[in-house]
Amino acid sequence: MPGDDALKVSDQQTKEHIMIARDIMTPQPIFAESTTPIQEVIALLHEIDVRHLPIVHRGELVGIISDRDLKVLTEVVFFEDEGSEALADHLAEPISTLMQSGVVYVDAEDELSEVVELMIDHRVGAIPVVQSNRGGLELVGIISYIDLLKEASF
Fold first, then answer.
1. pTM of the entire structure?
2. Considering just the CA atoms, what is the radius of gyration of the chain in Å?
3. Assigned architecture for domain 20-152
4. What residue segments make up the domains of the chain, in order of their start?
5. Measuring CA to CA, which residue among 132, 91, 94 is closest to residue 110?
6. Terminus of the chain with fewer CB atoms < 10 Å: N or C?
7. Residues 3-34: pLDDT tens digits?
8. Angle value at C-alpha 70, between 103 and 59, nearest 5 degrees
């Protein structure tokens, strides 16, 4: 029947248009090592003008830091009355002491609908994109809410 052929073509076109993480991710994202001092990570976030930075250890994704995570440092100065020396001490600590280690991530082949769902469920503004490499998670990209909004505008 002619209608059956039209349905098959339509199904094929739908499959071809399913977007995956790799399609919109920022490849080879800038990241920080887990031993990098907090002060250097803050400077890097400002320098590259981003709000989220993946954290790696020996080439594997171990966490993420966001501008929201850095608000803890404000509390040290203003609310705990520890002063500038305490702030300087905190800024010299490795980023691993402040990062979110339970990082939400996606595989490069995951569908964008899954990316959106994870971002909403976990209330995050960016998700690292990984691929398995020798039992670990190799960082290959990152998707921010801005990337999703840009894609949605087309």
1. 0.81
2. 20
3. Roll (3.10)
4. 20-152
5. 132
6. C
7. 555 555 445 445 567 899 999 999 999 999 99
8. 40
